[in-house]
Design a protein that fits this description.
CATH architecture of the largest domain: Up-down Bundle
Subcellular location: Membrane
Number of helices: 15
GO cellular component, one term: plasma membrane
Structural class: alpha+beta
Keywords: Glycoprotein, Membrane, Transmembrane, Transmembrane helix
Radius of gyration: 33 Å
Pfam families: Patched (PF02460)
Number of domains: 2
CATH class of the largest domain: Mainly Alpha
Oligomer: single chain
Family: Belongs to the patched family.
């Protein structure tokens, strides 16, 4: 058991640590759904690491009484030969060209996918297709396409008896109404327009807000506010001064827009209007929309995702430098994590996913899991140099890279493929569930497995085998010695494996 723990300890530690760090970063997200998911997963990963060593390992030791003496598990010669020829292909000219073309095509597809991905939110995606709640959300979407009001609370009212101040404020309203998404003046809900009509029709008093012939009095505001026209709606707050004149404290303005262009453009519209209102800060205007929390999430999701990715990648890089004490290999592992994460996000766009909180959670999860595909490859490639001299098994391996890659593939190739295949197999039933959340999770995991195996067994080995500086002379061994090392007959019994 001591040998088993020493062999698998680094693997379990680096996997658990990177996953806990990745999800701990996600727990700091302002999006509550993402924060709760990440925090719960981080705690679960930490407990799993403890139970793996404290509970599972002793239980495994107890099963030895049912084991037959002399049972051993050895790799077949056919598998050794396969990894040897595959390592030769990776290091060949055609293999390097294939790796280069694969990277170029992958990054091109990633770039195009990122270009077409929009930051948005669709509440119906959180429900099953057959859920009544989804039907309700769909009805709201139909309404929003025709009617998407934005309310403005003016807390520092302009002086409507002053033509200059009033004209400036009315000019702001006109600019808000002139946007292509707005219906225009005929659907704007502003108490002043109703007040002028009330004075003209009910009292016979003519007033005008035309800049060329401005004439406005608030002497009848109290009667207007108590009339049946606005009644108890509290569209305008005012008080009477010592002379009995109405002084406006605050009021509500509502401009009707269309939401036919979807959540993304509605969020963009809200952001642009907020920026526009900065030019009228003297009125202390607060823009209110029932969907403002969603709009804030949509407009900030790019920054939040970028921040989480940078922090998480930095944490992953630190972990890689700790467990892979080789600068070149650690950098290769970090670049591989970055490549897998970016490629995953771009390829998810081609699978119909948008940049929303669900995708954020999936990408954050993927960053932590992507370490497993590259760090182990880099570790074994580095570890071979320390425990094995450069070999020349078949007389044409001048720099020992074929032997190193064969050793690496022999150690992690089959487990990596088996783990990936079993994970994808477990995800297949999820595609039968008519839920966007479940299917997006399954798509992310399957795509992550494919990209991870591609990087771990093809792209990263090609990168690691590139010599950046002249190698030192190392002794060469007979082919049988190299093969015996791959068989596990290495004399270094205490050498850790990953």
């Amino acid at each position: 058991m001591r040998r088993v723990i020493s062999d698998i300890g680094p693997s379990i530690t680096i996997t658990s640590l990177t996953n806990v760090v990745a999800f701990s970063v996600g727990a700091l997200s302002p999006a509550k759904v993402m924060s709760l998911f990440s925090a719960g997963t981080a705690v679960a990963m930490a407990f799993d690491y403890v139970f793996e060593l404290a509970v599972f390992a002793p239980c495994l030791l107890l099963t030895l009484r049912w084991e037959k003496d002399g049972d051993t598990v050895r790799k077949s010669n056919e598998m050794q030969s396969f990894w040897w020829y595959y390592a030769k292909f990776v290091l060949s000219k055609s293999g390097r060209i294939c790796a280069l073309l694969t990277v170029v095509l992958l990054y091109l597809a990633t770039f195009l996918g990122l270009q077409k991905m929009e930051a948005t939110f669709d509440a119906s995606k959180t429900f099953s297709v057959t859920s009544p709640l989804k039907r309700s959300v769909d009805l709201f979407d139909i309404i929003y396409k025709q009617y998407a009001p934005i309310n403005f609370v003016i807390r520092s009212s302009p002086n409507f008896t002053d033509p200059n101040d009033s004209t400036n404020f009315l000019g702001m309203i006109e600019r808000l109404e002139s946007r292509p998404e707005a219906y225009g003046r005929e659907r704007t809900l502003f108490w002043l327009f109703g007040y002028i009509e009330f004075c003209r029709n009910e009292l016979g008093v003519e007033m005008s807000i035309d800049s060329a012939n401005y004439s406005l009095s608030l002497d009848y505001l109290d009667r207007f506010a108590k009339s049946h026209i606005i009644g108890e709606q509290n569209l305008v707050q005012y008080h009477l001064d010592e002379k009995g004149h109405a002084v406006i404290d605050s009021f509500l303005l509502t401009i009707i827009y269309t939401g036919k262009d979807g959540w993304h453009l509605r969020a963009q519209l809200s952001a642009e209007i907020r920026e526009f209102l900065r030019d009228y800060a003297q009125y202390n205007i607060t823009m209110f929309n029932y969907d403002s929390p969603i709009f804030e999430l949509i407009t900030s999701i790019n920054k939040e995702l970028a921040k989480s990715v940078v922090i998480t990648l930095s944490s992953m890089a630190c972990v890689c430098f700790i467990f892979v004490p080789s600068i070149v290999n650690a950098i290769a592992a970090t670049l591989s994590i970055l490549s897998i994460s970016c490629s995953l996000l771009g390829m998810l766009s081609w699978l119909g996913l948008d940049l929303d909180p669900i995708t954020m959670i999936n990408v954050l999860m993927a960053i932590g899991f992507s370490v497993d595909f590259s760090a182990h490859t880099c570790y074994h490639f580095y570890f071979y140099e320390r425990t094995h001299p450069a070999t020349l098994p078949y007389g044409d391996d001048a720099d020992g890279n074929v032997a190193k890659l064969t050793y690496t593939f022999h150690a992690i190739g089959s487990p990596l493929i088996q783990a990936g295949a079993s994970t994808v197999f477990c995800m297949l039933p999820l595609f039968t569930i008519s839920s966007y959340v479940v299917r997006s999770f399954a798509k992310t995991v399957c795509l992550l497995v494919a990209l991870g195996i591609l990087h771990g067994l093809f792209i990263v080995p090609s990168l690691l085998s590139v010599e950046l500086w002249p190698r030192k002379d190392k002794s060469k061994q007979h082919p049988t010695a190299a093969v015996s090392k791959l068989d596990g007959n290495d004399s270094n019994e205490d050498a850790p494996m990953m």
